[in-house]
Design a protein that fits this description.
Layout: H1 2-21, E1 28-30, E2 36-38, E3 44-51, E4 56-63, E5 69-74, H2 83-98, H3 110-127, E6 163-168, E7 174-179, E8 184-186, H4 192-199, H5 202-205, E9 207-211, H6 217-229, E10 237-240, H7 248-254, E11 258-262, H8 267-273, H9 275-280, E12 284-288, H10 295-309, H11 313-332, E13 343-348, H12 364-371, E14 375-376, H13 379-382, H14 397-403, E15 407-411, H15 441-444, E16 448-451, H16 462-472, H17 482-493, E17 504-506
Parallel strand pairs: 8-9, 8-11, 9-10, 11-12, 13-14, 13-15, 15-16
Antiparallel strand pairs: 1-2, 3-4, 4-5, 6-7, 16-17
Length: 512
């Protein structure tokens, strides 16, 4: 028995010695006149993670002997499909190519990008690599990036119903609403831009719920407007994630009189899924549709509906007339009858190695191009197909090269929408690094332009329509200043000025 114990102790000692001398990136102490810490190799594969928008984002990182990143793989996560997956592809590649963590995030997927960068930094720390050598600077999130805890005492006071009206919404549904309404919820925060011209600061005081969008509009609007109207987030619950079903429990807890839903991104489908439950407790759903099928009329239709709901019909008419003037000006030029209409290619969230989606003249930004008198190269392939009404289509790269468009219009690459609340970065157009693009007519002539993506479905949609028309047809629109028109709109109807967003970038403004 004693011999067994001695043998066990000897084996244990040998195992301790072996373990202390092996393993990837382990520190080994050497003896000499002074004891110093020497890392013989960082080589190995390590796992780490960091918090993203919807949970932990895991990464697996392979390091070389010198601690360099050899391979980075992003594991399963719950981040937003589409733009989030672009971050998953581009961020690891950028880290490996630059051997640095000081890299640009992917527009529209900032949180996911930062999560990947932070997760890699955590791995480097685990392996014993100095993250300073990778120029790592931890992302600092403002306190208003987090959803504020609801304060029951801050909720709008319920008013007594004095009358009932029937509103016909954008989908032709008749909805009975008791007036005056005390509170409301919206599918995404950009809808409040339609309500501010009607109610001013009260638009925020009556708000009790909003969904999140891909650009984190809940947080951006809070940072922009809280100093102006007070902490309205104390009574505003997040009722959905980006492009996701509504949180029925949250809506029921916030008890809005009406839920106003923009049909963009199929939000109306998610809303109608819960309509029966909301109706049972007296919460009505009203659908609006911007940009809809007719961009030149969709904002005015929306203002008419909201004017009834908020009992501000005269003001709604004033806003609509301003917007009508801009579209009437464009229509007066009869641009669609021009036999020499310029050819245009539109793309969303494109990068050198990732072709983003396009739109035909029947949807999204394709509507803007069409109103401005551009000949959309996507129409020849997609206009008469079942997919023509959606924005999820991509064009074959060879088709774009062979079409050699006169103009290229993009959105969703640089963060323009409400970028006044964050650090502005120089615009970059990575798509210019695509094979053959340097030979495109539009690129040679510097005719590549970007608009803040959300603009096409906003109350400001007249601006990109007017701006593109002046670019496509400078002689016909001589003396027309779209920026001055936009400034006038803000002066007359909004609580802030137009400097809140970078509305427009040109190829000459950016880099690749």
């Amino acid at each position: 028995m004693k011999g067994f114990k001695k043998l066990f102790a000897l084996v244990s000692l040998v195992l301790v010695i072996i373990l202390s001398l092996t393993g990837c990136g382990q520190d080994i102490q050497t003896q000499g006149n002074e004891s110093e810490k020497v890392n013989t190799s960082f080589a190995g594969t390590y796992n780490g993670s960091a918090k993203g928008y919807k949970g932990e984002v895991p990464v697996t990182v392979e390091l070389g002997d010198d601690g360099s990143t050899v391979n980075i793989t992003v594991g399963d996560h719950q981040e937003t499909d589409g733009i989030g997956s672009i971050a998953e592809e581009k961020i690891p590649q950028a880290i490996i190519e630059s051997q640095s963590l000081d890299i640009d995030t992917v527009s529209g997927a900032t949180v996911t990008s930062e999560a990947i960068i932070t997760a890699v930094a955590n791995v480097l720390e685990i392996a014993g690599v100095d993250v300073g050598s990778f120029n790592y600077v931890p992302a600092i999130r403002d306190s208003d990036e987090d959803i504020v805890e609801i304060e029951p005492e801050a909720m709008p006071e319920k008013k007594a119903i004095t009358e009932t009206i029937t509103v016909t919404d954008a989908k032709g549904r008749e909805v009975e609403i008791g007036l005056p309404i005390s509170s409301y919820a919206i599918s995404t925060m950009d809808l409040i831009d339609f309500i501010v011209p009607l109610k001013g600061e009260e638009a925020f005081h009556m708000l009790v719920g909003s969904g999140q969008d891909g650009g984190h509009g809940l947080n951006k609007y809070a940072k922009l407007y809280t100093p102006i109207v007070g902490n309205y987030m104390a009574h505003t619950g997040q009722i959905s994630d980006h492009n996701a079903p509504f949180d029925l429990e949250m809506i029921l807890a916030m008890q809005p009189d009406v839920l106003i839903v923009n049909s963009a991104m199929s939000a109306h489908k998610y809303a109608l899924e819960i309509e029966d439950q909301l109706t049972q407790v007296g919460i009505k759903i009203v659908l609006v549709d911007v940009p809809g099928k007719n961009l030149a009329n969709s904002v005015q239709q929306t203002m008419g509906i909201l004017g009834q709901i908020f009992q501000e019909e005269e003001r709604a008419t004033e806003v609509s007339e301003f917007i009508n003037q801009q579209f009437r000006l464009i229509a007066s030029k009869k641009l669609k009858e021009n036999p020499d209409a310029p050819t245009v290619y539109y793309e969303k969230s494109g990068y050198a190695d990732v072709f983003g989606s396009t739109s035909t003249s029947k949807s999204g930004w394709g509507l803007v191009v069409d109103i401005a008198g551009g000949k959309n190269i996507a129409d020849d392939l997609l206009l008469n197909t079942a997919a023509s009404g959606g924005g999820g289509n991509t064009l074959d790269p060879e088709y774009v090269l062979n079409s050699d468009p006169d103009f290229i219009v993009v959105s969703g690459i640089n963060d323009g929408w409400l970028d006044s609340v964050s650090e502005k970065k120089a615009s970059k157009f990575d798509i210019l690094n695509r094979n053959g693009w340097s030979n495109l007519k539009a690129v040679k002539n510097n005719n590549l332009y970007e608009f803040a993506h959300s603009t096409s479905r906003s109350i400001y949609c007249f601006y990109p329509s007017l701006k593109l028309a002046t670019i496509f047809y400078p002689e016909e629109f001589e003396g027309v200043n779209p920026e001055a028109v936009l400034d006038e709109f803000f002066d007359r109807f909004m609580l802030v000025d137009s400097s809140i967003s970078t509305w427009f970038n040109s190829m000459e403004d950016g880099t690749n």
